[in-house]
Amino acid sequence: MADRVTAIEQRLLHRHPVSGLPTREPLFAAIAASPDGVLGVIHLLDLERLQAFDEALADHVLAALAERVVRMLGAGALVAQVDRARLAVWFGTETPAEVADTKLQALGYALGEAVSFGQREVLPEIRISHAHMSDHGIAPATLLARVSASRSGGADISAPATDDPLIAAQQLYALEQDLRRAVARGELELAYQPLVDAQAGAVCGAEALLRWRHPEHGLVSPTRFVPIMEAAGLADEIGLWAINAACREAGTWRRLGLGPLRVAVNISGHQLDRRDLVTLIERTLARHSLSSDLFEIELTETIAAGDVDRIAALFGRLRRLGVAIAIDDFGTGYSSFSTLRTLRFDKLKIDREFVTAVDRRRDSQAICRAILELGQGLGIRVLAEGVETAAEYSWLNAQGCRHFQGYYFARPLDPAAFRAFVQDERRLSGLLAPLSDPVSERLRA
């Protein structure tokens, strides 16, 4: 009897109590027995956060995901629970490496499907990393550690304004879950802020700005949901939606005969990491019959200051396609003069920090003059963003700035309002007219 109890205890030691999967020891033994294989690690990114405020739901999600993995892979692989929020999959020599890679990719899609728990649904956040054992020749435990550590982390997410950490965690998790469904539910939209060419006296395009209209909370501030989007790994999906929606709208401008209006879309660092970004942009432009010279990407200085050689190669491909490239918030990041020369931007946007009250602040005036001279010397268009008063516009225009964006001209507009603004030539002419006296400024403000 004692021997039987001991045997049961030993078996339990090598099985996870929630998922029922083997633990590390059986995994390491399988790798040692057949070292020429593929090891995959499934990262359940939000499981520990969910467990912090709803352990029963977290256990249910873990068990459901483990069951999906085992059902999909069958007897062709060993599935193990290596810690609370990570599963490992070992494909031995009987499974070709390319087949293992394909199966892991399929798992990534399947595990992202919703898990039901009573009246609730959870959309799991999954990342999968993998390595070929033959490429490393190291101990199984070391390989597991390296593959587990290969997942790139996300940005920090600020918690809701509440003194109760449990409530804050619940609210944050619920908002993230809602954002995962936002594209499918049609809750995302783009607003368009006019880009004005003062020399031509016309609107020359618009920046497409992402908005989330939550069914219960109304418009959620981008400062609230964008960090969640990036940390939750949604930047690719939502970014591609934004590119598609912006190109569709720009195609409408062309069909309505509104002139050669260029649409500018913000691109995140996550999107720049995509090897197929240029191909995706090219296909999207073709889908909407939009000329590439009517599409512009915007990115921040911080992103541009990364791997300059890699980004320069990407910019070269985009430029050969005909897409323009703008650097946003110029003056607040880390761009060096050599970076500007290497990457060859088409447009610099002076950050609103230096535009605000530029008519009265000598330090801002010196910075804006320097940026305008830099742009002229490099042959790069310069746009002042965040222009909110007639005095700011008038001072910048007197210094040779020709392109503008900001509340002085228009706030971000819905598609219909933007089209109406483009066609209201009289209104724009009034805004662009030089100031004659302080009374005129007060009337325009």
Automatic annotation (TrEMBL):
Pfam families: EAL. Coiled coil: none annotated. It comes from the Bacteria. Residues 172-426 form the EAL domain. PANTHER family: CYCLIC DI-GMP PHOSPHODIESTERASE PDED-RELATED, CYCLIC DI-GMP PHOSPHODIESTERASE PDEF. This is EAL domain-containing protein. It comes from Sphingomonas oryzagri.
